[in-house]
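Write out the 3D structure for:
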Amino acid sequence: MRSLQSSRKKLHAFRDATKSEKRKKRGAPSDSTRPDAEAPGQQTRRESLREYARWLWPYRLRLIVVFVLALVTSVLTLALPLATKFIIDTTLPETIRSRGEKMSELFFVCGGMILLILISQSVDTIRQYLMAVLNAKVIFRLRQKLFDRFLRLPLSVLSDLKSGGIVSRLSQDTDKVTGLVQMALVTPGVASLRVVLTVVVLFVLSWQMALLATLMIPPIVFINVIWIQRVRPIYRAMAHDREEIDARVTETFGGIRVVRGFQRERREQRQYAVSHHTVIRKKLLAEKLQLVVSSGWGFLIPGASLVIVGFGSYLVIEGRGTVGDIVAFQMYAMMLLHPVSMIVNSYSSTQQALAAMERVFDILRRPIEKPDVPDARETPCPVDEITFDSVGFEYREGLSVLENISLSVPAGSVVALVGPSGGGKTTLTDLVARFYDPTSGAILVNGVDLRDLRLASYRSRLAIVPQEVFLFDGSVRENISYGKRHATNSEIVDAARRANAHEFIERLPETYDTVIGERGIKLSGGQRQRLSIARAILADPEILILDEATSNLDTESEQLIQASLADLFASRTTFVIAHRLSTVTHADMIVVMDGGCVVEIGKHDALMGAGGLYRDMVERQQSFAAGGAGSGF
């Protein structure tokens, strides 16, 4: 294992890598800069934007209402500086009007402004609520569609994505994509509208002072762009570091027995501390840059105000302006700062949202698992025969896993798949379950190619008890009835009895309503396996696949379950994968596989008499058991 770097060295390495990346971006020529070339990433982004526009099309009227309300709010907001100018220039100066008339005018103007502020805030609140509703509708629809697509993606795609990639797309990426409406359309649109209206009003009042006010915009943009370019890589690196820390924590406590068994607590503690300290150093670096930007703002705002006051005073002295103009310009100048900053910041957020959008729509564009062919038919009922016609399979091109498998399995047969590890037994049952399709040959059900049957129709006739049992964080009852959601209590109990699970369930604190925890962590391995068998029994399938289903059971429980499964096998076609060969001696057909090929087929007695690989495996296991070395192959 590599020696741990200090957090200081990690920070220096990060800064060097960032500088090197910037130099490469400045110096490396790119074909995408040519006018006649378009990078594949740009094409993908445009395609994703078009898809996103189609997603938003049903909500176009709501978006129009949001922009109209934003326009109303912006116009009403602009009235406050004008009212202030009116009070200073008209109400306050000495005139022939009486004190009472001035007070009436002051109360009238102030009351009107209070009313406008209330209306403006109410309209803006309605706009924000409508935007929140729009975001909620889009995110719900998008997340549901994405989850549905994940459920139907091929297993090979899901294994490449891993659980972390799936969760991040369903949570973080969809949140960012939903915020794209706000960040890419609403925020810059409303901010730009406010900037334009403010500048127009400034030029109407005084073009000279308007020029001074608009001169603030380039420095604001420059400061924000520099801030974004410098800080964005830091925050991105911090997010990546936190992901690694979280993953390491999950891994550490998932293997806490190994950690303690090898006395690695100190190392794990030090690695956790160094990783967190690295994040803190990066955060302090970002804070330092933030202080530099803040000092720039601290100089710009008072400096701009001083220039406006100074030049405005000059205009007042020359008789080309009023005190109200100076105050109004001060207020309008401040009103320019926030929307300009919003426009620049929205650009950065939009880039992150666009990257998330590409990740989301990349999943939505992927084809689902085994889409039904146009003329797909329902699965024949009953299933009379399953035939393997010269079946071959490759997970990757050129890497053969199964070769020329030919079998004929009559309905109701118990087929035992045995052989050395890596022989292709599980892969063959994956083809039966149609998790994958053969790369050569075909699997036929009553003479019909499995690929010509509706997948949902076929899977409804199938149940699987996997080697690695998976139970959900729910009650015992919910886990047993997972394949038959409307099962009665008597049916659930009967399935548990037949799987030899009823007795231990009755000893649980709340019997069938006991919550068993994530992956059934509150149960032993044998108990989890028996619940998995009960789940398959309750589903009452025509085709049953048992992948070493009794491997986690003690000898007594295994014998009881084998006896109870005999009735289950009698009425359905069953494929059993077993390394403990004593459990398959009564199978109707024993298929011996080695190296992806079928090397022997027959019943137990015939195979023992043939003196081949099967007999060698049986005798080896018997000698291990007699010598105390345990059983299993």
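Residues 28-41, 629-633 have pLDDT under 50 and may be disordered.
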